[in-house]
Write a structure and sequence with these properties.
The structure holds two protein chains of two kinds. Chain A is an alpha/beta fold. Chain A has a domain of about 180 residues: P-loop containing nucleotide triphosphate hydrolases (Rossmann fold), CATH 3.40.50. Helices cover about 35% and strands about 25% of the residues of chain A. Chain B has 17 helices and three strands. In chain B, about 65% of the residues lie in helices and about 5% in strands. By secondary structure, chain B is mainly alpha-helical. Chain B folds into three domains: about 60 residues, no CATH class; about 130 residues, no CATH class; about 220 residues, Orthogonal Bundle (MetI-like fold). In chain B, about 35% of the residues are buried. The two termini of chain B are about 50 Å apart. The chains are: A alpha/beta, B mainly alpha.
């Protein structure tokens, strides 16, 4: 693949110079699910994200790539206000969801996070049974009333997550007793159990082996039909396999946005090219 | 040496003049193991030292104290003369007189007043109470002769237990030659024997060692600790959860944290003074009561519980919190469903350590009057009461030889309760510590 990329970049394309920090590419999509404009994120005085603007479309997988410390995880955690738990974190700019700024004082984070779910880097199932892992969130939101409803939801959710056949006989067993890949799929099941609109995934496969990774990638592909997915990943292969659009971050700036195909075959920025050809990062 | 280490040979042969890395490692190996061995030796030494000290302590307490679980009783035939007892009002009779008459019948040859007083001194003043209770329970006994085992005086008890030596001159011991003779005659007639000391486990404090017991103090401690537990556990838990999970991290919370840590180290007598000033003088609560004792010990225990609970909450991995928040749970739901269950074992351990500390606390209770001499076994939270450590202090302060063994016996009872509480802590931790 790198050979091909080198050949393509050798073609006469004019790349933006390394010094340029302005976002290249089309940040807009038609009928966006979320709209981010001029987002800045600070940890105390240190600025982690600078002036990022991007649209997130419906039923698409948007991958965010970039070297470590570039701010892609920070930005992802802004999208459902998980950064609220960090006292020193401050977010400015606007992030619109359903046309409303999610950082507006009138927005309640509880229903917001029910609509924008999250899957974390390390599988973190609750130290409870598999059944409770999936059934707890719908219960606290009042999505299910009776035991029968919960049973049904747990089954359909686990089926969606492709985990049902593996765990149907041991739903009362602890979720932490599953293998790493199963745990992560359980976490995905937990996230989709409350029927969110958007699922944020923060390097969901970084702790998994290739087989478990492949299963999760297949799952992401299926879930795209119903949900919008934003995924942060360190693996460029993964980004190219699962996503339709890709955003490249570098040191807190959004350097380039485009269709995944374009980013990986015809990058327009020197930094993007350097990164995807493995010259650094 | 580092210059050598920098250029280890890669060849298997070692090379000329060059040292292989493995040789350097091997040379230091012996020293590394020596350090470990020495440390293990020190560790073992300290364990052995603590075990020896503990053994000495326990042997001395048990050795001194076990005799208190037995008490000397004397068999007395009491003629319940109908002329001396009023059937209609048996409580008002002169039981002391009846006992004295029975004693006289046992030793008809003793006639002068001084000798009689010495003779009566062999029997505990509790004998009259025992007789009164017997008659009150069963008035039909009036007119008959009953055989009673009445408690002997503590001096007789000490003689029987070998604490009064017969070979010291008469002026140097608490029993005269004459009294020794009477006791020997009782022994020959099988009228004196050591029995299990039920009184010790059923009575409150008393001026007479043979009539004193630990039960009043046990009940006092129970009521006091109940108040302490009921107040300090929920308050401490709520404070810890609020500070750890909800409070903003700012100067005010830092200030509170410093103060809580300080309070945990404040000498307990200061809490006693505070209780005296606030609960007794300002609120006018009854002094010497478990209610006030419990309140004071609550103040003292709270910092311990809060600190232990916060440590337990801190130990809950943040990923669990993120997982709960990530599916849109409120903070309260996150805490009650996921954080608290994981932190509970640590919280319970902290609470029980705090309670054990409170059980052994003396100084603050002296300040609120729980050091008073209280004979009655307390029936509730507002009855004057003693607690076990204060009882130990009071008995240790008494001159009678018989109180010495009771002091040790009381310590044994206290230790038994401490072991029970700490064992409960272990069991509870095991039960709740369902690590998935």
């Amino acid at each position: 693949m790198q050979e091909v990329l080198k050949k393509k970049s050798a073609e006469k394309r004019i790349l933006a110079p390394r010094e340029s920090r302005k976002t290249i590419g089309n940040i807009n999509v038609q009928n966006p699910r979320m709209v981010c404009r001029n987002v800045d994120v600070y940890y105390d005085d240190k600025q982690a994200i600078r002036n990022v603007s991007i649209d997130i479309g419906r039923n698409e997988v948007l991958s965010m790539i970039g070297p470590s410390g570039c701010g892609k995880s920070t930005f992802l955690r802004c999208l459902n206000r998980m950064n609220d738990t960090i006292d020193s974190c401050r977010v400015t700019g606007e992030i619109l969801f359903d046309g409303k700024d999610i950082y507006d004082s009138s927005i309640d984070v509880v229903p917001l996070r029910a609509q924008i779910g999250m899957v974390f880097q390390k599988p973190n199932p609750f130290p409870k049974s598999i059944y409770e892992n999936v059934g707890w969130a719908p219960k606290i939101h009042g999505l299910v009333e009776s035991k029968a409803e919960t049973d049904e939801l747990v089954e359909s959710t686990l089926q969606k997550a492709g985990l049902w056949n593996e765990v149907k006989d041991r739903l009362d067993q602890p979720g932490t007793g599953l293998s790493g890949g199963q745990q992560q799929r359980l976490c995905i099941a937990r996230a989709i159990a409350v029927s969110p609109e958007v699922i944020l995934m923060d390097e969901p496969c970084s702790a998994l082996d290739p087989i478990a990774t492949a299963k999760i990638e297949d799952l992401i592909d299926e879930l795209r039909e119903q949900y919008t997915i934003v995924i942060v990943t360190h693996s460029m292969q993964q980004a190219s396999r699962v996503s339709q659009r890709t955003a490249f971050f570098h040191l807190g700036d959004l350097i380039e946005v485009g269709t995944t195909e374009n980013i990986f075959t015809k990058p327009s920025h020197q930094l993007t090219e350097d990164y995807i050809t493995g010259r650094y990062g | 040496m580092s210059s050598v280490a920098k250029k280890p040979s890669t060849g298997a042969s070692g090379g000329s003049g060059r040292e292989r890395a493995i040789d350097i490692v091997n040379r230091r190996l012996a020293k590394r193991y020596r350090v470990e061995k020495r440390f293990r030796f020190y560790g073992l030494c300290s364990i052995i030292a603590s075990v020896v000290f503990l053994a000495v302590l326990l042997t001395s307490i048990v050795g001194n104290g076990y005799t208190a679980f037995f008490q000397t009783y004397i068999k007395l035939d009491v003629a319940l003369d109908a002329t001396m007892l009023d059937r209609a009002d048996p409580g008002g009779s002169d039981y002391q007189g009846i006992i004295k008459k029975s004693i006289n019948k046992l030793y008809p040859e003793v006639e002068d007043r001084r000798s009689k007083r010495e003779l009566y001194a062999l029997f505990s003043s509790g004998a009259a109470f025992q007789l009164r209770n017997t008659v009150m329970e069963n008035p039909d006994l009036i007119g008959t002769t009953v055989t009673l085992w009445v408690p002997a005086d503590d001096d007789v008890d000490m003689l029987m237990k070998g604490h009064i030596k017969r070979d010291v001159p008469e002026s140097g011991r608490r029993l005269s030659d004459k009294q020794l003779g009477w006791i020997d005659r009782l022994a020959v007639e099988d009228r004196i024997e050591k029995r299990f000391n039920v009184t010790f486990f059923t009575a409150g404090d008393s001026r007479e060692p043979e009539l004193s017991g630990i039960w009043g103090a046990v009940k006092g401690s129970f009521f006091t600790l109940l108040i302490t537990l009921v107040l300090s556990f929920p308050i401490g838990l709520a404070a810890a959860v609020y500070l750890e999970e909800f409070a903003p991290k700012n100067l005010a919370t830092d200030f509170i944290e410093v103060n809580i840590n300080n309070l945990a180290a404040v000498p307990s007598i200061v809490f006693g003074l505070l209780g005296l000033a606030v609960f007794l003088n300002f609120f006018g609560m009854p002094r010497s009561t478990p209610l006030v004792g419990g309140l004071v010990l609550t103040l003292m225990t709270l910092p311990t519980i809060i600190i232990a609970s916060r440590a337990a909450l801190k130990a809950v991995p943040p990923s669990i919190r993120e997982a709960a928040l990530g599916v849109g749970s409120s903070k309260m739901q996150m805490v009650s469903s996921h954080v608290l269950p994981l932190a509970l074992p640590g919280m319970l351990t902290g609470t029980i350590i705090g309670m054990a500390q409170a059980l052994g606390e003396t100084a603050p209770l002296l300040m609120i009057g729980m050091v008073a001499f209280i004979v009655d076994v307390p029936g509730g939270f507002t009855d004057p009461a003693a607690v076990m450590p204060v009882q130990i202090y009071l008995w240790a302060d008494s001159p009678e030889r018989a109180f010495l063994e009771r002091t040790s016996a009381a310590i044994m009872v206290l230790l038994a309760f401490l072991i029970l509480m700490n064992a409960t802590a272990v069991v509870m931790r095991k039960r709740f510590e369902k690590r998935w």
